[in-house]
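Open question from group meeting: does this chain pack into something compact, or does most of it stay loose? Before anyone orders reagents, we agreed to write out a predicted structure and look at it together. Recording both the input and the output here so the notebook holds the full record.
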Amino acid sequence: MYQEAELISEMGYPHILRDLFVEHVAICGFLRYPNFFRQDWIDSMLSWQSESEYGCMVNDKGYQQNFWSKDAPIARRSSPEEKEKGLVPDEMCLPHSTMFALAAYSLSWDYMEENCK
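Structure tokens returned:
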């Protein structure tokens, strides 16, 4: 799995493989494989989050998902501030990817806290 994650990284994290990459990092992190706690990988995953205060995983602007995916996008609700201003968010959160990314971040943080003192 590490070689596959490394290959995805070297390929520049193609959209179609991002979900698989995040799953690899989360699952192998859960199994405590330290090679998966790479700062460059965590930074890349963080860059795929939305810019809103909610931080859910989203596809890049202009990217059309034209392949089968297990991640059904969910339209994000307006925050109280957005409602007050009459703004309607156009973000489509990817719940599956968001959940695995959150697991990867949490496990990475836990690992660093335990081993980087």
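Observations to bring back to the group:
The beta strands are 74-75, 92-93.
The helical segments are 2-10, 15-30, 39-47, 80-85, 95-115.
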